[in-house]
C-alpha cells in the first residue's frame, strides 16, 4: 500500500473540525495532542495538523512542524490506525515551544497513538 496523504485523506470540513474540538476525545504525549472522532462510513482516516500561532510566531516554524507531523503520520498511518473497522478523523495539535527534530515528533506520535489504541481497545471491551 502506498504511503501517501492525498486530498481525500485530509480533514477539511470546518463542521467536522468544530465537532472534534467540542467532542473532547483526546490523548496527549506532550507536546503533541491528538483529538479524534469516529466518522460514518469506511475508508482512510482523515487528518488535520495544527500548530498554534501563540507558541510559534513565525510561519516558517509552524509550517516546518506541520510538515514533520504529516511525514511521520503518512509513513506510519497504517501501523497506527490499521485493523479498526471504523473510520476516524484526527486533529494533531503541537503545543511545544521549540521547533522539534523528526525523531522527537516520531517518538511523541508513537507514544500518543499507543495511548489512543489503549483507549479505543478499552472502549471496545466495554461495548462488548
Automatic annotation (TrEMBL):
Gene Ontology cellular-component annotations: ribonuclease P complex
InterPro entries: Ribosomal_Su5_D2-typ_SF (IPR020568), Ribsml_uS5_D2-typ_fold_subgr (IPR014721), RNase_P (IPR000100), RNase_P_CS (IPR020539)
One GO BP: tRNA 5'-leader removal
Keywords on record: Endonuclease, Hydrolase, Nuclease, RNA-binding, tRNA processing
PROSITE patterns found in the cross-reference section: RIBONUCLEASE_P
Broad enzyme group: hydrolase
Catalytic reaction(s) noted: Endonucleolytic cleavage of RNA, removing 5'-extranucleotides from tRNA precursor
EC id: 3.1.26.5
Single Gene Ontology MF annotation: tRNA binding
SUPFAM superfamilies membership: Ribosomal protein S5 domain 2-like
Pfam families: Ribonuclease_P (PF00825)
HAMAP family linked: RNase_P (MF_00227)
Task performed by this protein: RNaseP catalyzes the removal of the 5'-leader sequence from pre-tRNA to produce the mature 5'-terminus. It can also cleave other RNA substrates such as 4.5S RNA. The protein component plays an auxiliary but essential role in vivo by binding to the 5'-leader sequence and broadening the substrate specificity of the ribozyme.
UniProt subunit comment: Consists of a catalytic RNA component (M1 or rnpB) and a protein subunit.
Family: Belongs to the RnpA family.
Name assigned to this protein: Ribonuclease P protein component
Amino acid at each position: 500500500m502506498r504511503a501517501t496523504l492525498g486530498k481525500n485523506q485530509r480533514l477539511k470540513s470546518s463542521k467536522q473540525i468544530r465537532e472534534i474540538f467540542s467532542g473532547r476525545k483526546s490523548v496527549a504525549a506532550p507536546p503533541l495532542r491528538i483529538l479524534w472522532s469516529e466518522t460514518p462510513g469506511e475508508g482512510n482516516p482523515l487528518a488535520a495538523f495544527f500548530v498554534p500561532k501563540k507558541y510559534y510566531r513565525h510561519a516558517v516554524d509552524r509550517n516546518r512542524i506541520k510538515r514533520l507531523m504529516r511525514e511521520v503520520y503518512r509513513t506510519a498511518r497504517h501501523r497506527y490506525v490499521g485493523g479498526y473497522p471504523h473510520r476516524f478523523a484526527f486533529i494533531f495539535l503541537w503545543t511545544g515551544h521549540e521547533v522539534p527534530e523528526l525523531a522527537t515528533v516520531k517518538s511523541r506520535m508513537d507514544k500518543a497513538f499507543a495511548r489512543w489504541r489503549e483507549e479505543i481497545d478499552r472502549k471496545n471491551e466495554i461495548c462488548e
